[in-house]
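Sequence only, no structure available. Ideas?
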Amino acid sequence: MTGGFVFSEKPIEIESGEGASLYTPDGTEYLDFGASYAVAALGHSHPAVTTAVQEQVARLTYVQASYPVEVRTELYQKLATLAPGDVDNVWLCNSGTEANEAAMKFARSATGRSKIVATKRGFHGRTMGALAMTWKDKYKKPFEPLAGDIEFVPYGDAEALAEAVDEETAAVFLEPVQGEGGIHPAATEYLERAREATDETGAALVFDEIQTGVGRTGDLWACEGSGVEPDILTSAKGIANGLPLGATLVKDWIAENPGNHGSTFSGGPVVCAAANATLDAIVEEDVPGNAARVGEYLQHELATATEEHDLPVREIRGLGLMIGVEVKRGANRVLKNLALQEQVLALPAGRTVVRLLPPLTIDESHADQFVDSFVEVLG
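Reply:
I predicted one. Tokens follow.
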């Protein structure tokens, strides 16, 4: 009997990885410019993370979060220290969608309200609450009815957002850079207006930094680039360099009345060890600085190549190493040719955007390799 699966599989079997490279069983090397949706922030098989996981799993694999464990306590303290401003109360879970579910529940409990304002093109996850705040019908339609009292506004329209936020609003959910929606960075003025509108009405401002966080955009948290501090920040993906971990960080006024929430696998010691090692490396090696430098170089080289080779590209946009290249043909065809002809892996963000989320440790030579391959495929 053959086991079934839900995911559709690509015709490339991966056996191992190191740094920015993935390898098939026959030794074929692929340049990984997707990092499995920004998960491998430090690249594959980072030695510090590998060592931390090996040492922890030999001592203790799991004990529930009501029993203090040194490695988990260390992660609480580390995240509180690294959090933007006073967003320093920490809830640990297993994924980004769980982190956003928790944020939604915490905001509703703390405010005593139900209305959520979210954005068109926004993506917050695939469980029922997070899915309700996600814009595209293709993700939601088969599972309706979802959680109610959600109002969507155009992303980037400060006045529409301010008008939607009222005395019934529990929270505004925003991505500082929309990922799934096509790599659209928010203007600082837009985030500032969101902060003003929530302050005026007593609603919570939630920044979904599942994809933008832990160095991806050139700052440790994308919101730091704008100077706007949320009430709740959610993180996942690269936070443990490949192990499943999500975190919801909240200000004191949210933590005072979060409601009854829990998770069996909250803050498992092995994933906490991986996260501690990941965060230490990100800070000590100035990984956000590298993402800013190499990301700027990559965008410049892509723009130069587009002009020199008259490539069918409409726009290049992004922050740090979160870059979207909007092409004039289907993104999936471009991605397929990159993989099969050039051994380069990247991601889509909608039908026309090639999304680049490489490990944050790449250098200019990796960027050059990608640009050369991109020119080959599009030229």
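Residues 168 and 273 are 41 Å apart (CA to CA).
Hope that gets you unstuck.
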